[in-house]
Model the fold of this input.
Amino acid sequence: MGYVFDFQDSRAYVDWASQQSHQQTTAMQRRLMIDLLQPVSGESILDIGCGAGSSLLPLVELGLNLTGLDPSPYMLESCADRLGHRVDLYRGYAEDLPFDDNSFNHAIFFISLEFIENPIKAIEEACRVAKDRVFFGFLNRFALKGVQRWRKDYLQADVFNRARLFTVWEMKRMVRSVAGSVPMSWRTVCQLPQSPVKMFQTIEESDIVQRCPFGAFVGMVATLVPRFRTRPLAIRFTPEKHSRVLQGSAPVGTAAIKSTPKDGRCKTFSPESGLWELDDESPFVRNGR
Done:
């Protein structure tokens, strides 16, 4: 189940996320998510651990069918206040999603896997309900220069002290332990200290910088492919053998037709001789009479 935000945590997170200094970082993370996931209008997306809806907000504008799930009723209330009826919201846990197989085109984790008790089970459930791609947005434990940035941006909020951080290699290993050797791609952002200078933002969003595995935030997408090939069930069946005698033709061999005369002895009709013969082979009736 992991850590569930209570009322105070929910209020603290919403207040923290609404600060102007954090919105630039959040916008950069959202752009990375959309660039990697590449959703198409009309597709369906499940946000696992949607929280207050920060990751759902840019997806609403793309004409997607959105569903959010979170274990905290207070975070769901904040999300509903923010997005209204544009998102279907469910209370539940990532390790036991209340949806059928292949219910969505995509599933996303946006800084939520860090608070889940069993991330492997959560990934397994995400791969079960999604049929195309799964996006993982997480804080990088191996951030270099960016470590000061995520500590400043996130750990000043008490709720992030309970977060379990991952690396690019750990996440790839967990995903492939569940989904197999599926195609995966990743990039990072928040490489540099936050700055209002546009040049820093341009450097942050360059392909070369984003391929460095030490950014404070990692975006990773796994393209799901079928792992099993179904086959028709083979059932062994031996048909019964039936004699094929044409109507009107004489049977071959001794006919299994018997009669008992008055003297108590059995007689059998032989098509070869045209006689009814007693068991002692003495003629009894010729031509069937």
